[in-house]
């Protein structure tokens, strides 16, 4: 079985809708700020998630019926290209999959989809691009950068350690002729597996199979989801580096340097750090130089970019002093 990695805008959209659907109120860190902004933007744009889609997520543990998903046709396909498969979905397949999903009877919330699959699928095809522009387009550069960085990391694992190690890293297990995710899904009889990295991959993974059964796709969460925290740069003032009372990390190393450390839960460049934190690039560079010298941060090259990320001592420092902020540092 061969393995490839491909991004998918459609799967990312579904992942983000799943988060909003699963949490009526506050969405867990690090998606909380994004969720607040997305809900405001959806409201202003008069974009409403179809009720039957919300119910599919809530009753399926975050999963979706197979007819809504397809194996990404290529790396980074256009959304319209990904939506094309919905045109070919026949009503009988929709009803059969809903009956299998709800053996005790299709609930009232999903009845509109069951009664008229063609109309509801057409509604979905019109809705998804509008949702993208309202909720995710402002984060397109962040999504692309984090996904590309993750693909490079996974591709390195695939090249140096083989497909079994890569599957293990994303939560899958190679089985004869296929792949399995314990307690979630199993796909057999496939010759090609596509792994789909999702920044909004929290919860159960999505899976899909090609019509001829030769290819299957499985999503996994990108490790750099912390880039979505999106905290507004602090207001600059005369004592801009004075620590916030009770903030132990800021008390120890200063406010702006603590901001740099917290931003490095995902690999980042100097210029991106400066833009995100509202600091001069020269200031960020000085902080990074000190943090690298202290062994808290490490520097590495990825193509033409120079990336900075927390080294193990930095992870320990952040976990020990910042645990109350809920930072999911897992390195």
Number of strands: 9
How would you spell out the order of helices and strands? EHHHHHHHHHEEEEEEHHHHEEH
Uncertain runs with pLDDT below 50, 5 residues or more? 231-238, 324-331
Write down the Rg: 22 Å
Distance between the termini: 29 Å
Mean pLDDT: 82
Strand order of the largest sheet: 1-5-7-6
Basic shape? globular
What structural class results from the helix and strand content? Answer: alpha/beta
Give the fraction of residues assigned to helices: 40-55%
What is the number of helices?
14
Major sheet details: 4 strands, mixed
What fraction of the residues are assigned to beta strands by DSSP?
Answer: 5-15%
Overall tally of structural domains: 2
SSE inventory with pairings:
Elements: E1 2-5, H1 9-22, H2 32-44, H3 51-59, H4 79-87, H5 91-101, H6 111-115, H7 117-136, H8 140-161, H9 163-169, E2 173-175, E3 178-181, E4 185-188, E5 192-198, E6 207-209, E7 215-221, H10 248-253, H11 255-263, H12 270-277, H13 281-293, E8 297-302, E9 305-310, H14 312-322
Helix pairs in contact: 1-3, 2-7, 4-7, 8-9, 11-13, 12-13
